[in-house]
Amino acid sequence: MRVYRVSPDGAVVTQELGRVVVVVKDKLEPLRSSQFPPCRCPRHRATADM
């Protein structure tokens, strides 16, 4: 996964922070948070549209 810092409107990449390797050994449940916008992955798309 590549990590970038972008302008507040998301239009311009202001800094490339490098590459991160994420290793997952177990199937993890999604984080419970007040993240906005809600997750749009196929698993959660139906509940995000409510």
Task: Describe the secondary structure blueprint for this structure.
Elements: E1 2-6, E2 13-19, H1 45-48
Antiparallel strand pairs: 1-2
Plain-language structure description:
There is one protein chain. The chain has one helix at residues 45-48; strands spanning 2-6, 13-19. It has 50 residues and is mostly beta strands. Strands 1-2 form a two-stranded antiparallel sheet. The relative contact order is 0.17.
Fill in the keyword field for this structure.
24% strand, mainly beta, two-stranded antiparallel ribbon, 50 residues
Question: Summed up, what is this model?
Answer:
The chain is mainly beta and 50 residues long. The chain contains 1 helix and 2 strands.
Structural class: mainly beta
Sheet of most strands: 2 strands, antiparallel
* Order of SSEs: EEH
Give the beta-strand count. 2
Question: How many H/I helices?
Answer: 1
Give the helix proportion (percent range): under 10%
Principal-axes geometry comes out as flat
The side-by-side strand order for the widest beta sheet comes to: 1-2
Note the beta-strand portion. Answer: 15-25%
The rounded distance between the terminal residues' Cα atoms is 30 Å
Radius of gyration: 14 Å
